[in-house]
């Protein structure tokens, strides 16, 4: 007896169709698991190349930013560098400094030698690679003196460098504004600068008054009027004045007023100054003050205005010592010595002997 084999169908779910792109990715993925060393090296090299390109792009961006910042700082004169001394010229601008030896240059040299130059000079860059000085004449002189003495490291000077300006007015203004804060600049020196500025054709300045308004714009109106008065005084007496920078403001201004009021006063002043060709600065000021304090030709019943307080003659000098420099100031009834030393720590008897020896030397001179 035979058995019948039962046959039946089993319906299996059909596999979902895989999109061609996805199938391709799976195939590549499977191949990647089995890729050779060459393919791995190429992939690693490509990754390194992308990283290097990104780093280079970042560096270029930073360099561009720094270049733009440098151009901005250079345009504003904020770039400081050490430039050769022989590359600094002082030809373009006339200076208000009085000619001759600077008595206090020694102190500046000592300061620069000890602590360096704390305030760089200001220059304009020329097309020929050299520089025009704008601010810092005394600092430049001190560096040149130290270099001439054989000091090491003073062949180059720190300088703030700014672009060269075609118009010279801005350069003059910067020079003058710095000098206005100096206590030792005289009205005669400022007036001399204004007169020289007027005499330069390229400045297109018609009068000293205009020059004063341009150069000393930041000064007060009263101060500008004093400068104009001194300019007129120098024009009248410049051939006989030996020490115009020593004339006090009140003496110079009043002397100019008296000369306007009195005919012949200018000639009397000239005659008095020429009568003493060997006079020093103090004597010259005394002669000028005598015409201010005792003017002639006053109307009947009028007296001269209250005389100005006489200015005490003063002599300053420096004495080189083994441990430094002593600064001395001598005037009527007064002698002052200044040095970086604690004199209170010295025995009183030693000080007495030193003072006695000092007077003994003075008595010998007499």
Q: What's the arrangement of strands in the largest beta sheet?
A: 1-5-3-4-2
What is the CATH architecture descriptor of the domain at 186-297? Orthogonal Bundle
What's the N-to-C terminus distance? 170 Å
The mean pLDDT is 79
* Major sheet summary line: 5 strands, mixed
Instruction: Please name the CATH topology of the domain at 186-297.
Output: Arc Repressor Mutant, subunit A
Instruction: Please tally the helical runs, counting DSSP H or I stretches of 4 or more residues.
Output: 12
Beta fraction of the residues?
A: 5-15%
Helical fraction equals 40-55%
The radius of gyration computed from the alpha-carbon positions, rounded to a whole number of angstroms, is: 41 Å
Q: Give the low-pLDDT segments.
A: 295-310
Bulk shape: flat
Helix-strand sequence: HHEEHEEHEHHHHHHHEEEH
Oligomer: single chain
**What structural category characterises the helix and strand content?**
alpha/beta
Report the strand count: 8
CATH C-level name of the domain at 186-297? Mainly Alpha
Protein name: ParB N-terminal domain-containing protein
Biased composition (Basic and acidic residues): 21-33
Biased composition (Acidic residues): 11-20
InterPro entries: Chromosome_partition/occlusion, ParB/Sulfiredoxin_sf, ParB_N
